[in-house]
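Hi team,

Below is the intake form for Carboxypeptidase regulatory-like domain-containing protein from Candidatus Segetimicrobium genomatis. Please confirm the fields before the structure is written into the shared record.

FORM ID: S-0412
PROTEIN: Carboxypeptidase regulatory-like domain-containing protein
ORGANISM: Candidatus Segetimicrobium genomatis
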Amino acid sequence: MLSVAWSCCAILVLAAACAADAEEGVIQGRVVTRTAPSHPIVHQAVHLEIVERAASSVLDTVTDAGGRFRFTRLPVGGIRVFVLSAEYGGVRYSGERLALLPAAPVRTVDLAVYEPSTDRSVLRPPVMFAVVEVAPGALRVSVVQRLENPTDRTVVSSPRDPLVFPLPPGARSVRFLAGWVDPRVDGGTITDAFPVTPGRTEVAYACTLAARQSEVAVPWVFPDGAGQVDVLVADVGVEAAADGLAPRGAVEGPTGRFLHWSGGPISPRRGVVLRLRGVPLARDPWPAAVAAGLALILAGGLARSFARARDPAAPA
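The structure came back. Fields below:
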């Protein structure tokens, strides 16, 4: 009987081990440059970040002669995601978030990278979307600016020669909301050296403008021009007009009704001016954290709505 018991225990241990092996996950694929002619990248370092509730860890490997990589013995199920990344041509590329489930413990994906270029002339004129909220004694301005790269190369810059985004004169309390790498406020502009990958790249910020008089002018200048400019102003009884933009009626946003102006293209070194009359004068009562959250919701949600309206093929 003892030998039978030991045999049963051994079988159970082996069965458990087999079940564990069966639940071990695998993430595999290739690193491929999408710059023509497209081809796998050999001997390329690849990182896999495992993000869990309270911690994260990173695994590393190198692609083989066929540009292939493979991460094995990964945990399956649970609340965790996996993110592939690789640094190529001085730019860090990341893949989509992956999950390993008991029903699909193996994922095969390609990680796309691009050859670098320093030629900014290939970029299309930027598209700007701004939301202006009115508070007693202040304006809260949130901006999403989109850069479009129609080529198959990533346009790179450097801290010595960064991308430049002019701020409205008098902007203060600038908050960087999304898309930036190492932004700095310098001489009335935001500068940053982030890469512009093929397709669309968006950055967002919010700032405050003091309203010391009931009439306020908010100018924007575009050194490289602009393909399209959309400005929404909260419809709270303030008279509004815009030089260089046409009125487009009113739209409903997540916090109320907004007056809409738009126009474009805007020539290089030209600008537009938003003019407001009847701005209430008082100390700004908005907490900074609340204002930043509101700006992100407004700019992000409304910008996506306008992008879909202009480009029905754009993803939701």
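SUMMARY LINE: The helical segments are 2-22, 288-310.

Thanks, M.
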